[in-house]
Amino acid sequence: MENKPTSSPTSFVDQSVVPGDVVLDLSNMTNQTLKLGGGLRQDCDAISVMKAGKLRFSNPNKYWVESSQKRYVPRAGDSVLGIVVDSKADNFLVDIKGPGLAFLPVLAFEGGTRRNIPKFEIGTLLYVRVVKANPGMNPELSCTDASGKAAEFGLLKDGYMFESSTGLSRMLLSSPTCPVLDALGKKLSFETAVGLNGRVWVNASSPSTVIVVANAIMNSESLSGVQQRIMVEKLIQNLKLST
Amino acid sequence: MEIDRLDGRKANQLRPLACSRNILNRAHGSASWTQGDTKVLVAVYGPKAGTKKNENPEKACIEVIWKPKSGQIGKLEREHEMIVKRTLQSICILNINPNTTTSVIVQVINDDGALLPCAINAACAALVDAGIPLKHLAVAICCCLADSGYIILDPTKLEEQSMKAYAYLVFPNSILSVRPEGSLKVQGEPMEHGVITSGTQGAMSVDDYLNCLERGRAATAKMSTVLRRNLQPQIASDLSKAG
């Protein structure tokens, strides 16, 4: 193990950190407002890490730890894919892979009134937006965007849903378009919905297209951009050979 | 007086360590830890909603299930469960997800000495893999005391059974910090000098026990680096730049 006798590293930004590492010392940073994202907590004067991952910084004052898990930590404003588990008088109970079930109010649809409450059976897949996610309380969802329009939220019919990690979901949603979706979109036509909670839904006209797209996305997690394009080309060649 | 160990190791030498993460498909977090021939596999599920009857609903609850390699579950397994549970409770941040239960299932694959420290190391790695918020990591080690007062580390099963006494100790891991003086101080002493868990078997004098503490603490530096290296994120770093 290398020895750092007296000098300590000046900054951990863009480096891997594990729980317990102290990444910021507030005693030399007075009169600044910092925004701490996921994975960091404040312990008197020190900001220490709670989850293992890469520390990221964005100007002017945001710090967070980027990590990829199988479970989801609900945050307000995220778009997620939920599965209906139960329906009560006022809410649908929806599972979004978080610590508790989320509530979807029966009226949270565009033009929703007491007379046209949608009938969702248990097991229905929905694309919803997280409205509130306070610690200790069940998250609240909505099928409309902030202004009240439907905006593609709601029931997802047909298609195929599979689970991924939260890191893969963020990569699929990054802009510019991530290489695997870009390469697939040039040759095949399909539609997809990606939830930040680690669920991806794919729909296309033929089952073989759905399978190719799903396999390509699942395999692309640990590959770089160039490797992703090569993998997609191979899969599409196999698809064309077999049809 | 030097003692010759059966496998030719020196007194302070640990067996080869191996750790792998994310090995089980369905578990939310999983890790296996190997020390020589002792191997333990741990799976973590959670956090899930709801706590057990006698647990405090304002805190997260950790439930440990110990599965031996063979034989029925008896009092020894229950004792191991209680020790692992108490250790994990002191490293987890319990008020982040109140009223939830995290299940930790420990499966012994092979027992060749130092079983409980191996299980605690694996459980800590599995919790990090599942994304459970932790205050810091825990590193566990086993020290054996011979009749002459000679201390050896990381014993095999034969050595454990033939020695006068042994102690297993769990320390916080060594952390990286931006502060020049290192870690957080608790009552004037650096946090790394604390002991999370300690258990002994057999009779030893107080001086021998303090010697064990010193030797064990010095040896945990190497285990800390192995753990830190294995907890690095595994995704390609150039794609996860979305802010």
Distance between the termini of chain B: 60 Å
Structural class of chain B: alpha+beta
- Greatest chain-chain contact: A-B, 54 and 49 residues
Distance between the termini of chain A: 56 Å
Class by alpha and beta content of chain A: alpha+beta
Give me the Rg of chain A, rounded: 21 Å
What is the count of helical runs of chain A?
Answer: 4
Q: Give a quick account of the main beta sheet of chain A: strands, pairing sense, barrel closure.
A: 6 strands, antiparallel
Helix content of chain A: 10-25%
Please report which band the strand proportion of chain B falls in: under 5%, 5-15%, 15-25%, 25-35%, 35-45% or over 45%: 25-35%
N-to-C order of helices and strands of chain B: EEEEHEHEEHEEEEH
- Main beta-sheet strand count, sense and barrel state of chain B: 5 strands, mixed
Mean pLDDT of chain B: 86
Total E-strand runs of chain A: 16
The DSSP helix count of chain B reads 4
Average per-residue pLDDT of chain A, rounded, comes to 88
Percent helix of chain B, as a range, is: 25-40%
Estimated radius of gyration of chain B: 18 Å
Beta-strand percentage range of chain A: 25-35%
Q: Total strand count of chain B, please? A: 11
Oligomer: heterodimer
GO molecular function (chain B): exonuclease activity; RNA binding
Family (chain B): Belongs to the RNase PH family.
Subcellular location (chain B): Nucleus, Nucleolus
GO biological process, one term (chain B): U4 snRNA 3'-end processing
Describe the structure.
With 243 residues, chain A is of the alpha+beta class. Chain A is 19% helix and 30% strand. In chain A, strands 8, 9, 10, 11, 12 and 13 form a six-stranded antiparallel β-sheet that branches. In chain A, strand 6 (53-58) and strand 7 form a beta hairpin. Chain A is flat, with a radius of gyration of 21 Å. Chain A starts with 15 loop residues before the first strand and ends with a helix. Mean pLDDT of chain A is 88; it is low at 1-8. Chain B is of the alpha+beta class. Helix content of chain B is 26%, strand content 29%. Chain B is built from four helices and eleven strands. Chain B has helices at residues 75-91, 115-130, 157-162, 206-230; strands at residues 17-21, 29-35, 38-49, 61-67, 100-110, 138-145, 151-153, 165-172, 185-186, 189-190, 197-201. In chain B, a hairpin with a 5-residue loop joins strand 6 (138-145) and strand 7. Chain B is globular, with a radius of gyration of 18 Å. Residues 235-243 of chain B have low confidence and may be disordered. Classes of the chains: A alpha+beta (243), B alpha+beta (243). At the A-B interface, strand 1, strand 2, strand 6 and helix 1 of A face strand 3 and helix 4 of B.
